[in-house]
Amino acid sequence: MDDSFRLNRAQWDERAPAHAASRGYNLQGFDDPEHLSDVVRFDRPRLGDVRGLRAVHLQCHIGTDTLSLHRLGAHVTGLDFSPVSLAEARALAGRAGADIDYVESDLYGAPGVLEAGAFDLVYTGVGALCWLPDIRRWAGVVATLLRPGGRLFIREGHPVLWAIDETRKDDLLVLSFPYFETPEPLVWEEAGTYVDTTAQFQHNVTHSWNHGLGEIVSALLAEGLQLTMLEEHDSCPWDFYPGRTVEDAEGEHRLAEGRARLPLTYTLQARKP
């Protein structure tokens, strides 16, 4: 696991400046004090009123969603294992005049650097769980951080989506990769990144894991959390299948044809009694 985290952290460290400079993250948009990230705008009807809540954003990357939660009135701490990502997040918060704490740690180390039982809201955005090898251990971290009555909010890529082979040229949606959590990681070597950039990268190997929806729910229930929402969506906030998707005005992508065939993301909420 240490080797996997080392490889993944090097990849995120190298790509964070390119992400911060990209049109996709649109950091310039945050010059408008009313601006929110596309991800949090999608989440907002399900999040409800977060004013005054003490929140932690796990795996926060460069902090666009963290700043958006702050703008909705939450008192937010962001946590990430990439120091370069956190530097970009701090710079963004500084330009926006936002009082946000950022803490460097991998996800599993969060209870060692954050106060246990202190948070009204644990928030995780899209594309986070796939970097974690053990979903039961993740659920334990969430339960440790939440105060009694606090809640978890997560919107994430659907495990069916992560199992799809998006490189196929025919019209078939084929599950080519594991749906369930596996002991060994999937090993990827990809030179680019998920935003448009001309940057060239040297750290291109990453390790990832999928986690079935039942595994995720069961892990939270085993920690005593109570499931309050599980909603599947036919959209996601990135172009998951280039050439076969359409984008709406909110930046959400869907299959251009037969969208009912494939769940792309889900929103899950759970409460600590």
What are the defining features of this structure?
273 residues; 23% strand; seven-stranded mixed sheet; globular; alpha/beta; two-stranded antiparallel sheet
How would you describe this protein?
The chain has 273 residues and is α/β, with parallel strands linked by helices. Helix content is 30%, strand content 23%. It has a seven-stranded mixed beta sheet with strand order 3-2-1-4-5-11-8, with helices on both faces. A two-stranded antiparallel sheet has the order 6-7. The longest helix has 20 residues, at 2-21. The protein is globular, with a radius of gyration of 18 Å.
Instruction: Please describe the biggest sheet, giving its number of strands, its sense, and whether it closes into a barrel.
Output: 7 strands, mixed
Low-confidence stretches: none
Mean pLDDT across the residues is 96
- Beta content comes to 15-25%
SS content category: alpha/beta
Shape: globular
Order of helices and strands: HHEHEHEHEHEHEEHEEEE
Number of helical elements? 8
* Count of DSSP strands: 11
**Straight-line distance between termini:** 32 Å
Strands of the largest sheet, in order across it?
3-2-1-4-5-11-8
Percent helix: 25-40%
How much is the radius of gyration in Å?
A: 18 Å
